[in-house]
Amino acid sequence: DRRTPSHPALQHESPPQGDQGRRRGRCPAAMPSPRSSPAGRAAPVPSPSCAAVAFRSLLAADLRFSRQLGVCAGERSAWGSARPLLRLLEVSGHGVPWLAGTLYGLGRSESPAGREVLLNLLFALVLDLVLVAMVKGLVRRRRPTHNKMDMFVTISVDKYSFPSGHATRAAMVCRFVLHHLVLAIPLRVLVVLWAIIVGISRVMLGRHNVTDVAFGFIMGYMQYNVVKYFWLSPLSAPALFAVWNQ
Ligand SMILES: CC(C)=CCC/C(C)=C/COP(=O)(O)O
Q: InterPro entries from the xrefs (predicted)?
């Protein structure tokens, strides 16, 4: 019976019929009608739980929506002419320029305060690479089929798309910069806009689904809390700073 409630809280109102209805966690919306066996008894047909049905529907909607938004996925796509600009944004949020820039800054920095901030930015960038690689390796969600694999410098786990490493980095760096650099309001707004646009451009380029980027933003936002918690300073890591200041 399709109307039979499967949630235990509802079962007292309308008792389930047969084995199928008694099973916990089955989704009424996905429950097929029982098929009659030759002996006339309803054959048990396994049905997924409500959570599984909702999850699959979300993923299907995500794939559909992301494909529609992938308007720069190729040169011949609807907004294909904007692709070079979006690829420039891709480089602006990539790990290599951020790591190279931070190392360069560290080498040139002459103030202890500047070195402390840059050292923590380096820690944040490495932490981001490690955490994203771990989650990508665990989840193993393939990139959208409409993505062209012409990305700027990738490592092996970058064949997977969940979460977007650009989104985690953009969100984390954005929080980092807003906390540690004294910037005029227009520049602060620009930093936030950059992070948002980098995330959106991942879907437009066809590199990611919307959920990869949404989760990436959340993960990057939280990664900054980890950096803040383990902040490296002459007090928390005296040996590191003593070696450096020699
Ligand atoms: C090789 C290094 C140092 C970093 C790889 C950076 C990269 C390619 C991340 C993937 O980002 P998306 O997950 O947003 O595609």
A: PAP2/HPO, PAP2/HPO_sf
Residue nearest to atom 7 of ligand 1 (CA): 154
What is the C-alpha to C-alpha distance for residues 70 and 76, in angstroms, rounded to an integer? 12
pLDDT digits (tens, 9 = 90+) for 96-144: 999 999 999 999 998 999 999 999 999 999 999 999 999 999 999 999 9
pTM of this prediction? 0.82
Q: Is 166's C-beta closer than 6 angstroms to any atom of ligand 1? A: yes
Ligand 1 contact via 165 beta carbon (within 6 Å): yes
163 C-alpha to ligand 1 centroid (Å): 10
Does the pLDDT at position 181 exceed 50?
Answer: yes
94 lines ligand 1 (CB under 6 A): yes
CB 96 less than 6 A from any atom of ligand 1: yes
CA–CA–CA angle 184, 85, 99 (5° rounding):
60
C-beta separation of 227 from 120 below 8 A? yes
Q: From CA 72, how far away is CA 204, in angstroms rounded?
A: 5
**Helix, strand, coil percent values for the chain (each to nearest 5):** 65, 5, 35
Q: What are the tens digits of pLDDT across the range 44-59? A: 777 888 899 999 999 9
Q: Which residue has the tokens 């480089």?
A: 91
